[in-house]
Amino acid sequence: MCSTHQQKSSSTSLWKRPEAAAAEAQLHLYNSFTKKKELFVPINGNEIRWYSCGPTVYDTSHMGHARSYISFDILRRVMADYFGYDILYCMNITDIDDKIIKRARERYLIKKYKDDTTIPIEKVLEDCQLALKHVKDVRSRETDKDKQAMYDKQISTVENSLQNIAAV
Fold first, then answer.
1. pLDDT of residue 115
2. Structural domain of residue 76, as residue ranges?
């Protein structure tokens, strides 16, 4: 028996059917513009297109990243499974930007890498090829013509530099 409440055998409790809810469950969310809870109404029928910022990957993953993944996944599941919304969820994962480059410079990572004379030139070239492969992959998915041109220029510069280094 799971209950600590003991029932007298002489009295039997009558089961009562729960009353049906007057309306279907509705999702209410806090609206930061109006500063109050309001009924959530999707823009397009039952479809929700949801974008959220994700981690900026500049170091090893940590519990803060896990918390974001888990929290948003729980919200998505409740909205889909309980409220029945059709959800398209997209989380951005930032790979690199000026802030990350600045942080790397602050940590002297580039200088440490350049000054480490124990790293064979073959390893440096291999690392550069891996980085170049990543940039080419990003470029292949880019649709903006100006950004494509920027990537093409960067790729060409790195490829020329690698050829010059390899020729030495």
1. 82
2. 26-116
